[in-house]
Amino acid sequence: MFVSQSSCHFVQLQPLRQENHHQLLFLSSRHPIQAALISLHCFHCHSLQYLSETEKLTRIQRVGAMAVDDVGSPVRYAVVTGANKGIGLETVRQLATAGVTVILTARNENRGKEATSKLHQSGLSNVVFHQLDVLETESIKSLAKFIETEFGRLDILVNNAGASGVVVDEDGLRALNVDPANWLAGKAVNVVQDVIKTTYEAAKLCLDTNYYGVKNVTEALLPLVQRSTSGARIVNISSLRSELKRIPDDQRRKELGDTDSLTEEKINAILQQFLHDLKHDALEANGWQKMLPAYSISKASLNAYTRVLAKKYPDMCINCVHPGFVKTDINWNTGIMTVEEGAAGPVMLALLPQGGPTGSYFDTTKLAEF
């Protein structure tokens, strides 16, 4: 059953027949909260079949129902990094529309303020700007201090800031007109090798942003996230390139997929080995991915870090998500999805109800294999 009122949105998560899912998703497509919750419900419906009867009952009892009351519920505070454009900006917009107070962060102060101003003009006054460069320790500290002073806690962290790890001849890339299906399948590597180059400098910036930047921001904000009164949520924006099946080297694939022995130290060692092999022109010989190698290993490492963090903080919902092949600057606008579609997964995970999944990887809004 689905009921929507002006002051309260309520979703009762009763068992639904399969044929009703698409209808409900269509009806809720214009409302981010409802869409996120119904998508989560579908996840639970499909995943329950794999659980024991006791586990099924526990899962259903924990998920139950979720209400978002514009008047009575406590305000939630969120940070979205790299949010002056693209998926980050749209994630801010959807979260703010859902009633969350959002701190929009960007490295470039002017662009961040401009993006925030446009959201204010659209009626979203619950968005504030704070400058953040995920590569700079003092910038991260400044953000943490700001949140501590202004809000006292943080409920949602969306790590979205990213770098591609390559140097691109964009005009040459556009001229190739690569089929999106070949991009997604990783089959474009031989076609684009003359216009996309992996340099050591670009690769290091990629790792420092996509992995170490996320790690440093998360660790700095964790004390504030732990104070959340509505259930802490950490969402790491990943990629299809992160999936373990795409890693050629068997040993490396096993190391990143073994959650029992996975540690931050092991992840760091893998990344340093990558930089060593890149410097010595040994990426292909040592089993690294050919297609966007730095970006791919940075996101695989981010997924691994997500699992380590989720294990360390079991009371939080900490997940990673491939937002889809979205048309944004990071893929030189070769994507085929809109930013509205791309933000659906991150927003769903940011608004998870109590008892939602953690330590998981999602392909857009669907649970997927690491």
Describe it for me?
Belongs to the short-chain dehydrogenases/reductases (SDR) family. Keywords: NADP, Oxidoreductase. InterPro entries: CBR1-like, NAD(P)-bd_dom_sf, Sc_DH/Rdtase_CS, SDR_fam. One of its GO terms (cellular component) is membrane. GO terms for molecular function: oxidoreductase activity, acting on the CH-OH group of donors, NAD or NADP as acceptor. This protein has helices at residues 18-27, 32-47, 53-63, 86-97, 109-121, 137-150, 170-176, 180-185, 189-192, 200-225, 250-257, 264-279, 293-312, 339-342, 344-350, and strands spanning 2-4, 8-12, 65-69, 77-80, 101-106, 127-131, 156-159, 167-168, 196-197, 233-237, 317-322, 361-363, 366-368. The chain has 370 residues and is an alpha/beta fold. It has 2 domains: 1-73, no CATH class; 74-368, Rossmann fold (3-Layer(aba) Sandwich), CATH 3.40.50.720. The chain has an 8-stranded mixed sheet, with helices on both faces. Strands 1-2-3 form a 3-stranded antiparallel sheet, with helices on one face. A two-stranded antiparallel ribbon has the order 8-9. Helix 5 (109-121) links the parallel strand 5 and strand 6. The longest helix is centred in the middle third of the chain and has 26 residues, at 200-225. The chain starts with a strand and ends with a strand. Residues 1-36 and 41-72 have low confidence and may be disordered.
